[in-house]
Specification:
Elements: E1 9-12, E2 15-18, H1 52-63, H2 68-85, H3 94-98
Antiparallel strand pairs: 1-2
Helix pairs in contact: 1-2
Length: 100
């Protein structure tokens, strides 16, 4: 994650969220602050997760082959963001997140 995840584009259902900086529109004074930087934009989107039992089962299976640190990193940095990137109608199914 050396790029601090700025280049990723998360798509989910009818909502699309992009991380990073949006170029300011110099002709629109409402699009930038006094320094000429673009104003922050916030989008509301559904967020999903996994219950504690599922999380423990997933980490236990991973820990059978890898270290506990690898298991935690996988769940926190890969699995949960993948679940949240799924379209709303598929977010309940971890198999859909595994395809991302």
């Amino acid at each position: 994650w050396a790029d601090r995840d700025n280049a990723r584009c998360y798509r989910g259902g009818a909502t699309e969220v992009e991380q990073g900086f949006k170029p300011a529109n110099a002709s629109d004074p409402n699009s930038c602050d006094s320094n000429g930087l673009s104003l922050a934009e916030v989008a509301e989107q559904p967020v999903w997760g996994i219950d504690c039992w599922t999380r423990r089962n997933v980490t236990s299976v991973i820990e059978a082959e890898f270290s506990p640190e690898i298991a935690v990193e996988f769940v926190e940095k890969w699995l949960l963001p993948a679940i949240n990137a799924c379209p709303v109608e598929l977010a309940h199914n971890m198999a859909a997140a595994a395809r991302i």
